[in-house]
């Protein structure tokens, strides 16, 4: 466990949590639209941390407001309804959905330049939207796993960056992670991004097998695999909010 988490009750206009870290050298803030976290070394007192947060409260409030406004302005990539002719997102493009009634018990989905949903002819129209959305989500997760495994096969052998396991997860704010035993987790929503962006995130996590930080050596290793990583990283910063809204 990297952090010891402590909930703090205070008189500031926002609550915050203290995360004690053995790796931390300085006190720093991590702010989202919904929470404030203070990452601090074990030796820093709570009084000092509270004073630090108090001095930064105007910045915290303005940052939270900016993040909140940005999220409210985001447009989901998902169609309003999963019906015949809807445009479904996949690998940074949108493809039309064709619904075909069939004598089956389950929905099956295939992609041939457009999406074909074979739907049980007995399925009620009122249930169609949620049933196809669920089937599409399952299909995307399997596709994400397939693409991630391809990327690992492409890059792992070069410098011996072999993960112990690969898992595709639903994550609200992270694209990937590499655990202490080299277990790699990837956000399945990356399948909605350009393929090279998904590949960059896979490479990023593979490189953490060798470097457990974001030092210059880490980024040099990333660049060895993907010289254009800065452009891909920037794409994710600009467009990632849309992806994280999910389906």
Query: Mind telling me the C-alpha Rg?
Result: 22 Å
**Architecture of the largest domain, according to CATH?**
2-Layer Sandwich
Principal-axes geometry comes out as globular
The end-to-end span amounts to 31 Å
| Contiguous helical run count | 6
> Order of SSEs, N→C?
EEEEHHEEEEHEEEHHH
- Low-pLDDT residue intervals, each spanning 5 or more residues: none
Strand content: 15-25%
Task: Give the CATH class of the largest domain.
Answer: Alpha Beta
How would you sum up the major sheet?
4 strands, mixed
Helix content: 40-55%
> How are strands sequenced across the largest beta sheet?
1-2-4-3
Instruction: Please state the average pLDDT score.
Output: 91
What is the secondary structure topology, with strand pairs?
Elements (H helix, E strand, L loop, with lengths): L2 E6 L7 E6 L6 E4 L4 E5 L5 H10 L1 H16 L14 E4 L2 E10 L5 E4 L3 E6 L4 H35 L5 E5 L6 E3 L4 E5 L7 H13 L8 H10 L3 H16 L3
Parallel strand pairs: 2-4, 6-8, 9-11
Antiparallel strand pairs: 1-2, 3-4, 5-6, 7-8, 10-11
Helix pairs in contact: 3-4, 4-5, 4-6
What does the model show?
There is one protein chain. With 247 residues, this protein is of the alpha/beta class. It has three domains: 3-72, no CATH class; 87-142, no CATH class; 143-244, 2-Layer Sandwich (Zincin-like), CATH 3.30.2010. 40% of the residues lie in helices and 23% in strands. The chain contains six helices and eleven strands. The chain has helices spanning 46-55, 57-72, 125-159, 195-207, 216-225, 229-244, and strands at 3-8, 16-21, 28-31, 36-40, 87-90, 93-102, 108-111, 115-120, 165-169, 176-178, 183-187. The strands form three sheets. The protein has a four-stranded mixed β-sheet with strand order 1-2-4-3, with helices on one face. α3 packs across α4 and α4 (195-207) packs across α5.
């Amino acid at each position: 466990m990297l952090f010891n988490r402590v909930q703090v009750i205070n008189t500031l206009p926002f609550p915050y949590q203290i995360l004690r870290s053995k790796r931390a050298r300085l006190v720093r803030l991590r702010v989202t639209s919904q929470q404030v976290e203070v990452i601090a070394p074990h030796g820093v007192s709570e009084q000092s941390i509270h004073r630090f947060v108090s001095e930064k409260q105007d910045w915290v409030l303005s940052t939270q407001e900016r993040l909140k406004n940005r999220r409210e302005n985001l447009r989901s990539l998902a169609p309003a309804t999963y019906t015949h002719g809807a445009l479904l997102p996949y690998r940074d493009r949108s493809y039309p959905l064709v619904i075909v009634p069939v004598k089956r018990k389950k929905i099956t989905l295939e992609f041939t330049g457009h999406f074909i949903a074979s739907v049980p002819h007995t399925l009620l129209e009122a249930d169609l939207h949620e049933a196809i959305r669920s089937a599409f989500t399952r299909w995307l997760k399997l596709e994400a796993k397939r693409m991630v495994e391809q990327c690992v096969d492409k890059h792992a052998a070069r410098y011996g960056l072999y993960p112990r396991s690969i898992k595709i997860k639903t994550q609200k704010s992270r694209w990937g992670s590499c655990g202490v035993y080299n277990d790699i987790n990837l956000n399945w929503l990356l399948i909605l991004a350009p393929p090279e962006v998904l590949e960059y995130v896979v490479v990023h996590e593979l490189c953490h097998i060798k470097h457990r930080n974001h030092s210059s050596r880490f980024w040099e290793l990333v660049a060895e695999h993907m010289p254009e990583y800065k452009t891909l990283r920037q794409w994710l910063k600009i467009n990632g909010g849309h992806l994280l809204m999910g389906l």
